[in-house]
């Protein structure tokens, strides 16, 4: 940031700390002790750029994940114009999934596509209900997202707050509840 940027109040967003993703397995253990089981699903969400440059980066990330025959990877587009790269691993391999998500995020960031990245998710199940631990790329923080299974486009806020209380010692929690985005249509949910 230059002198003029400082005078004009312009700030540069902090660089994401992708290594914090490796704290998710501990959070998964904490959640598992309370009945939240890791589903085996996770995803990286980004806005797809025009042209071939990001396509090559995504293809490279997919190839890297596919080297493990137990992992599958698929692309999805949502109704909001975002692209999701969904990774599925055996339900006990949360560490493998986190490594895959980290590889996708770091590959995209290293190639200059970090501005188009939104979040990563790790999906859990509790009493027949799916929930996600969401990593906000630009903030370096996590929050829980739990869709209400009884109503369309409604969240289960009590379960989200319960999850936050359970994992706040394991991962950095996003303190601003207004930044807890609703990720309707996310793969695995």
TrEMBL record:
Top-level taxon: Bacteria
Pfam families found in the cross-reference section: PspAB (PF22742)
InterPro entries found in the cross-reference section: PspAB-like (IPR054383)
Listed name of the protein: Uncharacterized protein
